[in-house]
Specification:
The structure holds two protein chains of two kinds. By secondary structure, chain A is of the alpha/beta class. Chain A is built from 15 helices and 15 strands. In chain B, the strands form seven sheets. In chain B, strands 2-3-1-4-5-6 form a six-stranded mixed β-sheet, with helices on both faces. A six-stranded antiparallel β-barrel of chain B has the order 7-8-14-11-10-15. The N and C termini of chain B lie far apart (58 Å). Classes of the chains: A alpha/beta, B alpha+beta. The structure holds guanosine-5'-triphosphate, iron/sulfur cluster and magnesium ion.
């Protein structure tokens, strides 16, 4: 982590800029644990209510699916997300961990597990520590009871403090807090108060997510009924406030929504954005591996049926062409403060219309959206707020000959 | 029936003074249309006429009337439109008549088109029968109306008939006056056949149908006819009269009004105002025709969906078949795509054509700002006409620009005088004459640039006078004017659809207004986008499109990458549909929004 290379002027960085994947680049492993006690109003992740049978079958399914994967090289990073991995009983965590460990080919550099504050117990933490988990990510979202209620979150402010205390006591190398902003009814002061409460805990890492209205969520319904409104200006202001406040507190931004103290950036995610490879296990888990990108079926029963038959339940398979990888390494790479190394992209995909891309980049630079220093390209804060529009602009420059 | 018992007359008046309603009563009284079949405003046969309650085209109808002298008379009536845009229809109808029934709404009194149409009738030496109509109205002011008749129109008050088309009062008086006062058909003893074409209609099955008034001679099926203006000959297939439906008959003789179906299929070949004669024994002198009507107002019409281009083209072609005053040719615009440059007689005409395209041809359209025809004299003396600002030559090559003016007669209540004069000033006009009509009203005579009355003049007139003002105009002269072409530019690239020709003094205000509107309607952009109004490269007003503030997905982890990628691809596709002005992509409907209001 944090191998400090020479930085392009103006591009702050905690991690090296995107050197896109090579066949023997770092490999990630993502395990999706699809259980939640209830569904949060903003959530579009695949999850279901845990039952004893369901969990048992799920664990068998993970073992079966893992057996279907070709493990050609050691896994560098592991990430358990959900759902709520922390909802599994200690014994089930241990089973899952044992299955996973058997495939790692050594000790991973980083192993993250997402936990919901309400289900953090010393017993669970102890199992995770024993398994070799290095990083815990707590889904705090907010410290304010009213907002937590509004999100349909099942924990209290006190539970967050208690959970954080237990996690710290267990001695994980890195602890992250997930926060959300631009919640309905949350003004600037309320958000600053949440940020302040999080900073007071001195986590190693902070993820601050602007509330997104995902289709098929309760919040989306409210939005379409006009009961909540989008206000991009307000959101932009909250973004800027967040960036300023966290920088002042010593947390360097390394991606649109991610901040870390030196050495604590999440390597698993950095590798994802650099278009390296990762294997995904579990229903709805995405993979980018062995020449393809795809996602497992987002349904526990159907996923199980597939793996039981000895097939991986991948949908939406897309072949990883150099064109796709180059485009994505650029678009997703620019979300990172370190930006991308254009020279490396040119090597990866020499046939791309680089002249057109360069012209678009020049416009972005002229427009104050990007900074370019030789072959290092990164976005300015204003550009970062418009990263999607920038992405569309760049995709346009790649034109029709780039196969998506 | 001898020719001496034929009467040809039309009904003329200001808009809405009750011409078509009175016609209903005449049709009813003469049993031309049975009570059972008669609809309100029966002669307004087009859907649009019925819906808007206005007459757009003149409608002929032949009636038989047993007069109080016990004899039957053949009365050919023509109901005419009252709106100023269609005054050419009135002129044509007058040319086919010997008399005119002039209606005056008893509640409104003499208005602008009353005066204008009465003068048209006098000029053609027609017998004018004044009728004070709508006397059933509680607001009827008979004393005022008779005084206005004498003072403004110089018609003796005792000639006036009191009537109500609604209540059926005075109908017999009118019919008797037509019989007694309107002369029988003129020029009947000219040695050869002379037949005036006063209108034409295109029918998909029967080709071009000429609406005619026979002055001398007669015509029947199988005759060889000849159009005097071109010498083109054709076989007559059918002749008939209007009842008001077309009804076949054996012959049309002197004084008759009816229709001729011939072997001619091309509508352009049958020109209104032309004289038809018989090929075997042709006449040598044409009947007095009328001035060809020329469109005065132009605009671009574009389909909202570019796929509808062909449909629009077909629709315009069809409309033109029955409306020689409407012209069009194809043009294209960077902002709006492929469309047509169209010419109209006036604003109402423009509005009606647009509505008919939308309704009868089911095409959604947008129009650019209306323009007039400018005469441009270039250095070196060359003269050109420009009806589209885009075609304006480089300012350096122009010696002078001339614009069309109108002479307007505006009748208003006395107390609106001050506001009205300010409006005329604001519109660069000059009031050169005022006439007191009565204790409450004055008539202003003013010269105004046609261009200035295109947009909101009539609405403003109505609002200043609380609905009591009216205006008539005729085309005046072309005058030299300090006009400039103003371009609207987005990041330095001109947007053709917004180019306009304006008076230099008004350019800045108008430029600012347009820039503001565009800046407000164009969605926020990620780059700085300047909107400028410029004259010959010199910027006179500017604004900026709002800058996009936030467009970023918060969370983009492994599972989100495919999804995000699809979304960006979709946005990229969406961008292809946008209009490209230089490097700025603008949703096509942004321009439409601006043009709409
Ligand atoms: N009270 C009253 N209303 C009338 C009379 N005649 C017509 N109207 C009303 O006046 C309005 C206009 O009548 P039209 O017959 O369409 O008038 P017009 O002169 O043919 O109108 P344009 O063809 O558009 O110039 C309608 O609302 C009629 O109902 C009348 O004798 N008395
Ligand atoms: S946000 Fe997390 S805890 Fe809430 S429903 Fe979604 S996956 Fe479960
Ligand atoms: Mg009428």
């Amino acid at each position: 982590m944090g191998e400090m290379t020479a930085m392009p002027p103006g591009c702050t960085q905690v991690a090296a800029p995107g050197s896109p994947r090579s066949p023997d680049g770092p490999l990630g492993l993502y395990v999706h644990v699809p259980f939640c006690a209830a569904t949060c109003d903003f959530c579009a992740f695949y999850q279901t209510v845990p039952t004893a049978d369901g969990v048992g079958h799920y664990l068998e399914g993970i073992a079966a699916e893992a057996a279907l994967v070709e493990w050609t090289r050691p896994v560098n990073t592991v990430f358990w997300g959900g759902g709520t991995p922390g909802l599994l009983a200690p014994v089930d965590l241990l089973r899952l961990g044992t299955t996973v460990r058997a495939r790692l080919g050594g000790e991973p550099e980083e192993w993250t597990v997402e936990l919901a504050p309400a289900s953090v117990t010393a017993a669970r933490l102890e199992v995770l520590r024993e398994l070799g988990v290095t990083r815990v990510s707590l889904g705090v979202q907010s410290f304010q009871p009213g907002l937590l209620d509004a999100l349909g979150r099942l924990h209290t402010r006190e539970q967050v403090f208690r959970a954080y205390g237990l996690v710290r006591a267990a001695g994980f190398a890195s602890v992250n807090l997930d926060l959300m902003f631009a919640l309905p009814g949350q003004d600037e002061a309320a958000w600053l108060a949440d940020l302040g409460a999080a900073l007071a805990l001195a986590p190693d890492h902070l993820s601050t997510y602007c509330l997104t209205f995902e289709e098929d969520t309760k919040l989306w319904v409210k939005l379409s009924q006009g009961r909540v409104k989008l206000d991009p200006e307000h959101e932009a202001r909250l973004y800027e406030m967040t960036w300023a406040r966290l920088a002042a507190a010593g947390y360097a931004q390394y991606e649109v929504s991610n901040f870390a103290r030196p050495g604590h950036a999440c390597r698993h995610n950095l590798n994802t954005w650099r278009m390296h490879e990762w294997i995904g296990l579990g229903p709805s888990a995405a993979s980018q591996h062995a020449g393809f990108r795809g996602a497992n079926i987002a349904d526990l029963g159907r996923w199980l049926a597939h793996v039981a038959r000895g097939e991986r339940a991948t949908e939406d398979r897309v072949m990883l062409t150099p064109a796709l990888l180059a485009e994505d390494a650029l678009i997703f790479g620019l979300r990172m403060n370190a930006g991308v190394d254009l020279a490396a992209l040119r090597v990866l995909f020499p046939a791309a219309p680089w002249t057109d891309v360069a012209a678009t980049i020049a416009r972005l630079v002229d427009g104050g959206l990007a900074k370019r220093d030789d072959d290092m390209l990164c976005l300015t804060p204003r550009g970062r707020l418009l990263a999607d529009a920038v992405g569309t602009e760049l995709l346009g420059a790649f034109g029709a000959n780039a196969v998506g | 029936m001898p020719v001496s018992r034929t009467r040809n007359f039309c009904i003329i008046a200001h808009v809405d003074h009750g011409k078509t309603t009175l016609s209903d009563r005449l049709l009813e009284h003469t049993n031309t249309v049975s009570q059972r079949m008669l609809t309100a405003q029966h002669l307004d046969s087009m859907d649009l006429e019925k819906e808007r309650g206005i007459t757009i085209k003149s409608h002929p109808v032949t009636m038989t009337y047993r007069a109080q002298d016990g004899k039957d008379y053949k009365l050919n009536l023509m109901d005419t439109p009252g709106h100023v845009d269609f005054s050419y229809e009135v002129s044509r109808s007058l040319a086919a008549c010997e008399g005119a029934v002039l209606l005056i709404d008893a509640g409104q009194g003499v208005e602008a088109q009353t005066v204008a149409n009465a003068h048209l009738a006098f000029a053609q030496q027609l017998k004018v029968i004044p009728v004070i109509n709508k006397i059933d109205l509680p607001s009827a002011n008979l004393e005022l109306c008779t005084r206005q008749l004498e003072d403004i129109l110089t018609i003796p008050a005792e000639e006036a008939i009191l009537a109500s088309g609604k209540s059926g009062i005075g109908i017999v008086d009118i019919l008797e006056a037509v019989v007694a006062r309107v002369p029988s058909p003129r020029w009947t003893d000219y040695p050869q056949a002379r037949i005036l074409v006063f209108d034409s209609l295109y029918d998909a099955y029967r080709g071009c149908i000429a609406y005619v008034r026979v002055f001398s001679g007669s015509i029947k099926a199988h005759d060889m006819m000849m159009l005097m203006s071109t010498g083109q000959k054709a076989e007559v297939k059918e002749v008939g009269i209007f009842t008001p439906k077309m009804e076949k008959c054996a012959t049309l003789g002197p004084g008759d009004v009816g229709y001729i179906v011939s072997s001619i299929k091309t509508p352009a070949d049958v020109k209104t105002g032309d004289t038809i004669t018989l090929a075997a024994r042709p006449a040598t002198e044409m009947l007095p025709g009328y001035k060809e009507v020329r469109p005065m107002v132009f605009c671009g019409l574009y389909p909202l969906e570019s796929d509808d281009y062909e449909k629009l083209k077909a629709g315009l072609a069809r409309l033109q078949l029955n409306d020689a005053a409407f012209v069009y040719s194809s043009e294209s615009s960077i902002a709006l795509g492929f469309g047509f440059r169209c010419g109209f007689l006036g604003l109402l005409h423009m509005e009606i054509i647009q509505e008919r395209v939308r309704r009868e041809h089911d095409v959604d359209i947008i129009s650019t700002y209306p323009s007039v025809i400018y005469h441009i004299v270039k250095q070196g003396g060359e003269k050109i006409e420009v009806d589209n600002p885009v075609n304006m030559p480089d300012p350096g090559t122009i010696l002078e620009i001339r614009e069309p003016t109108i002479r307007a007669s505006i009748i208003i209540p006395n107390d609106s005088m001050g506001d009205m004069l300010s409006l005329i000033m604001e519109k660069r006009g000059m009031c050169d004459h005022t006439t007191t009509l009565d204790m409450n009203r004055v008539m202003l005579s003013a010269i105004l640039p046609l261009n200035e009355i295109l947009v909101d003049f009539n609405d403003r007139l109505k609002s200043i006078t609380h609905g009591y003002g009216s205006m008539d105009y005729e085309l005046g002269e072309y005058v030299v004017s300090d006009l400039v072409k103003m371009d609207i530019m987005i990041n330095g690239d001109p947007v053709d659809a917004f180019a306009c020709i304006v008076h230099r003094e008004k350019a800045e205000g108008k430029g600012r207004q347009l820039c503001e509107k565009l800046a407000e309607i164009i969605p926020p952009q990620m780059f700085k986008v300047a909107i400028q109004a410029a004259i010959g490269g010199k910027v006179i007003a500017r604004d900026n499109v709002r800058e996009m503030r936030k467009d970023v997905t918060a969370k983009c982890y492994g599972g989100d990458i495919s999804r995000k990628r699809k979304l960006l691809d979709k946005q990229k596709e969406g961008k292809k549909k946008m209009k490209q002005i230089g490097k700025v992509s603008i949703p096509p409907d942004a321009f439409i929004q601006v043009l709409k209001n």
